[in-house]
Every structure is written in C-alpha cells, then in structure tokens.
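Retro notes (design track)

What went well: tokenization of the new backbones is finally stable.
What didn't: we kept losing track of which sequence belonged to which structure.
Fix going forward: every design gets posted as structure first, then sequence, in one message. First example under the new rule, 610 residues:
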C-alpha cells in the first residue's frame, strides 16, 4: 500500500495512547515527560553537548506523538548557544493523525505552545521525507515516513545522538532488528551517544557489535535499568565546532533562486542574489499567476516519490506567504491513457483524502493545490536579502567567484540562461505562453486542469500554457499560441470562454528549460572534462557513480525545472542547503541519483562509447 498505515490507536482510561497492534504504550502518562528527559535527553548528555554552540543532530527511532521531540525542543530553547542549529531526524512507520497528537500531548500544558507549532505544521499522510523548519527556533525536523526497514537504509545524515524508542523489543521486533545496528553505526561519528529505556540482551549485543560501548544506568521511575551508549569512545572524539556562516552567491532571482535564497538566509548563510533583470521574477517565473498542483504517478517509483516529496515541500513552504492562496484543482484526464493512469492511481493512492479525491468521470481533485502570484511571493521570499540587479553574473566555477568576488558556495539558478553557462548539460528551451483577462466578476479561487490549466482568483482569469519548441532568442507571444490556449480553455471551461471574450486578453511568454528525462538538474555542478578523461574508468565501473562524484566543490545548479518550477523550487532549495550546511538530506541516494546533474554527462559518455 502506498499510503502509510495509521496505528491501531486506542486510549486507556487515564489518557495513555496505546498501539493495539503492538500492545504497547507510546509513553507513560504519569511521568512521560520526566522519563523522556531522563532516559533520552540526559542519556545522550543533553543539554551539555550543546554548550559549544555547534550544530547538533538527534536521530530518533519512533516519532510517535512527538513527546521526545518536544522535550528536546523545550530544552533546546532554554539551552541553545551561539548560532548552533538543531536537526531532529525521526523515523515513523505509522504516523498519527494530528488530532491524536494534540490529544496525546494534553497532559503537559508546558509543552502546549510547542505542540501547537508542531500540529500546525504536521505533514500530510504520505510516505517519504518531510522537513519542517522553524528558523526562529533554529530547528529542523526531518521525518522519514515509512517502515524503518525501508527508510533507514536511504536516510542521509550523521547523528550526534540516537533516541531508541521503538516500543518494547519483545513486542515490536521490527524496530530492533539486527540490520538496525550497522545502519546506526554508518550514521554515527566517534563520540555519538545513544540512549534507550530497554536493556534487552539483543539490544546490548547489537549496539556493542556495531561499535558502541554500552553502560547500564538506573532506570527512571519504576523501571530498574536503562541503557546509555557511546560510539567508538576510544577514537579521538572531536567535539563538533561552531562553523562560520557561509557566504553564498545565487545567480538568478526567479522562483528557484528566491526559494533558495530564503532557505539559506533562514539557515544563517550570508546570501547575495545576482540577476540581470531590475528585480525578482522577471523571467519565466514572472507570469501573473501560477498553479502548484501535483503530478502523481501510478507506480511506486523513485520518480513518483520525488514528485510527491517536491509537491508536499512546496505546499508547506508556500503556506501563509504573501501571494499564495489555497485552492482545489479539478484535474480531468486528457486522454484514454491518462484515464487509465488516474484509475490505477486511485486504486492505491499515494496521498490521503485530505489531499486527494476521486471525481466522478475519472478525474482527480487536488484539494490543497495553490495559486501563486509571483509578483507578491518573490519579493517576499527575497525580503532582507541582498540583490545585485541589472548585472550579468560572470561565474568562474573552479575559482568559485562571481564577477571576481569569492564565495564559499555559488549556485546557478538562472532558468533558460543556464544552457549558455553550462554547455556540458543538455537543456532544451520550451516556449510557454499564458493568456489572461480581468473579469467584471469576482470569483473565489479555483483551478481546472487537463493538459492545460485555467485559474480564477478574484477578478483575475488566467489560462495556458503552451509547451512549444523554441528556436532561441527572447520569448515572444504569438497569435497561434493564443488560439491554442483559447481552444484548450473551450474544453476546460466553456463558461469561462464567454467571460474571457468580454475583456482585453493579455499574453506573456517564457522559456522553460527542460531535460530529456523530464526530471530537473539539482545538485553539484559537474567537472565534465574530468569525467570525459575518466571515460574508460567509468566504463569499467559499469557507469556506476555516486551523486557526489565529479562535483566541482561548492558549486551547484538548480535547473531544468520545466513547467513545474514552482513545485520543484522549495525542495531543490532544501537539498542544496543540506549540502552546503551538511544537514540531514531531504533526498535518498536513489532520489538524488535521479536528479543529479552528473547523470547527463554519464549518459553522453555512454552513448559515445556505445
Ligand atoms: N518517541 C515517541 C514519542 O515521543 O511519543 C514514542 C514512540 S513509540 C514508543 C514507538 C513508535 O515506533 C511508534 O510511533 C510506532 O508507530 C513506531 N514504529 C513501530 N514499528 C515501526 C516500524 N517497523 N517502522 C517504523 N516505525 C515503527
């Protein structure tokens, strides 16, 4: 099943939540918070480990109600120092509904303000990696939703502390499987701590065999013992040191550059954005309105997961920002193939009812899609960030300079202009035209999609977009594109057409950079010459390379977003930010491989030898 299952949640008379499938409690109602502090926080040397002001990563097995997370957050608020950032990575196979999280946490009024923040941001029920960032708290929660055996092997982070809280080993062996220990070791550094409430023999042996030194400690409350562990205590355990905020240049102030600037600025980087235009969003991102809706694939593939991760990240990132309105999109199949795809999708949907509904006649209703007004959103994203406008950026990727100025990281996010800056990549420009009118009538936000789309919000009506071959040069609107869009609108909404005919139709065209496999290019820039020189080595290695291979250090690209720029941009921004700061990754090795730029060079070299 593609949707993560709910737990079999029941409540004891005293309010203790229990998963009846397992037959165990999430926490003890009398003193759950005190136990969480004693077993997990103190057990991992917190808050002492935060004194240096360095970044810190806690990994937890079993997010449950979020009690441990909130206990850590509360402690972090009281004890964080300097510019340190707390990353809390947690794994959960049976996510609770948000109402149940709120109910479970009611016994602790002192946690209420934090519980409310968590509940307000609680992600949709879907498998994958969800990141919630509270910049004002210097805190990110990374949730891996799915069974531990499926999620932990692909999770990319290094932990400073582990909270092992996966129900009792006797009742829930899956969370304590022997495969777990080497996976933990792989994500630990000398000195990484681990703590748990159980001293079960298999847990002790597993930790020890993986390189942890263990120690039994007196248990909390009525429990006799608990366990503390340290990874490779005999090796020089260098405490993490605070790092200087990186100085970062972003080339391009469309939605990719603006989202990245916001994410990096919030994370503490010194950001400067370069654009040859006089302000943000004057290229392809600058249509009067844009629609953020998902592309949902029928199979449970890497691409399908990527599209869901990107869509849900965009939803959460744009929520409550200026120029963003939530709306339902009525998505009708365009042909028999799409009808079949939708039917297959609905037989095992990847998103829950709060997101997705089946329409009679075979369509999809996307309940939380967004209408974005870029002229409001982009300046808001760039608020407080230095812009260098009306300036062509001359990038030297090996020297990591822009117009002669040196940076710790340089990111190219200049849409269709990337093809000229990165000739080693294969980007094809596609012309997209939208048309719009101001109506006499105010309408609530709504959207229709069927290949093309139509958006109404207030008096604005916008429809499009074409996706045509582009022969280069500045994008120009055309009567042919207007007729194509008008014909599509006729099918989407005959009623609108009448409305649209009354006003003066305006048009705008932009060039979308696309790739052959229709997936974006997100990640390190590639040293294509070095790859070409290594062609025989690569062939001998059967063309297997890691996403980070042949990267030009400190340089990145966000490009090839096609007609889904507003959907990909926030997820891409999180990925690049994770790379620059060494934070927990929003991608797995598989999803990274699908979007990493070096794949294109590899394919080219393969073709040449074939
Ligand atoms: N730390 C939680 C808290 O603060 O509320 C309590 C965690 S509870 C004791 C154990 C958690 O592990 C449950 O939320 C359960 O759904 C999750 N879990 C159990 N088996 C799992 C599996 N195979 N994969 C992923 N999560 C699992």
């Amino acid at each position: 099943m593609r949707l993560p299952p709910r737990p079999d949640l029941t409540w004891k008379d005293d309010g203790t939540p229990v998963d009846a499938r397992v037959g165990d409690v999430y926490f003890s109602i009398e003193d759950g918070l005190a136990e969480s502090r004693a077993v997990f926080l103190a057990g991992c040397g917190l808050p002492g480990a935060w004194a240096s002001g360095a970044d810190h990563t806690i990994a937890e097995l079993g997010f449950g109600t979020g009690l441990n997370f909130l206990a850590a957050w509360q402690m972090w608020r009281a004890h964080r120092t300097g510019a340190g950032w707390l990353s809390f990575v947690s794994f959960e196979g049976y996510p609770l509904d948000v109402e149940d999280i709120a109910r479970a946490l009611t016994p602790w009024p002192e946690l209420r303000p934090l519980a409310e923040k968590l509940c307000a941001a609680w992600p949709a029920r879907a498998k994958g990696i969800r990141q919630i960032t509270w910049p004002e708290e210097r805190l990110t929660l990374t949730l891996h939703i799915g069974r531990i055996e499926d999620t932990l092997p692909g999770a990319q982070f290094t932990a400073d502390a582990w909270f092992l809280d996966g129900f009792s080993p006797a009742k829930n062996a899956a969370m304590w499987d022997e495969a777990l220990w080497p996976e933990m070791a792989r994500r630990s550094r000398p000195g990484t701590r681990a703590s748990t409430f159980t001293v079960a023999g298999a847990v002790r042996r597993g930790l020890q065999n993986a390189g942890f030194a263990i120690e039994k400690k007196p248990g909390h409350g009525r429990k006799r013992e608990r366990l503390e562990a340290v990874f490779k205590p005999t090796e020089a355990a260098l405490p993490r040191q605070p790092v200087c905020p990186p100085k970062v240049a972003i080339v391009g102030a469309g939605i990719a550059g603006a989202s990245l600037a916001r994410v990096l600025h919030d994370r503490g980087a010194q950001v400067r954005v370069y654009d040859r235009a006089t302000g943000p969003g004057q290229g392809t991102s600058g249509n009067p309105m844009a629609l953020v809706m998902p592309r949902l694939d029928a199979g449970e593939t890497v691409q399908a997961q990527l599209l869901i991760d990107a869509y849900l990240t965009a939803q959460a990132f744009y929520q409550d920002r200026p120029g963003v309105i939530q709306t339902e999109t009525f998505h009708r199949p365009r042909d028999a193939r799409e009808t079949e795809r939708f039917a297959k999708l609905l037989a095992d949907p990847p998103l829950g009812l709060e997101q997705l509904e089946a329409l009679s006649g075979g369509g999809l209703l996307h309940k939380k899609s967004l209408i974005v007004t870029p002229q409001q959103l982009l300046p808001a994203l760039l608020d407080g960030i230095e812009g260098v406008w009306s300036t062509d950026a001359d990038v030297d990727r090996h020297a990591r300079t822009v117009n002669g100025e040196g940076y710790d990281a340089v990111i190219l996010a200049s849409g269709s202009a990337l093809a000229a800056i990165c000739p080693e990549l294969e980007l094809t420009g596609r012309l997209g035209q939208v048309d719009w009118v101001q109506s006499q009538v105010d309408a609530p936000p709504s959207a229709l999609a069927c290949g093309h789309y139509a958006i109404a919000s207030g008096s604005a009506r916008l429809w499009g977009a074409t996706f045509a071959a582009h022969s280069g040069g500045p994008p120009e609107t055309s009567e042919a594109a207007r007729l194509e869009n008008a014909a599509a609108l006729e099918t989407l909404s005959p009623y609108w057409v009448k409305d649209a005919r009354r006003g003066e139709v305006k048009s705008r065209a932009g060039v979308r950079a696309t790739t052959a496999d229709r997936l974006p290019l997100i990640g390190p820039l590639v040293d294509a010459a070095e790859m070409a020189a290594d062609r025989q080595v690569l062939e001998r290695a059967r063309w297997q390379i890691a996403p980070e291979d042949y990267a030009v250090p400190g340089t990145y690209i966000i490009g090839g977003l096609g007609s889904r720029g507003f959907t990909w941009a926030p997820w891409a921004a999180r990925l690049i930010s994770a790379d620059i700061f060494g934070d927990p990754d929003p991608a797995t090795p598989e999803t990274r491989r699908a979007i990493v730029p070096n794949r294109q060079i590899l394919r080219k070299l393969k073709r040449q030898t074939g």
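Added context from the reviewer: The two ends are 39 Å apart (CA to CA).
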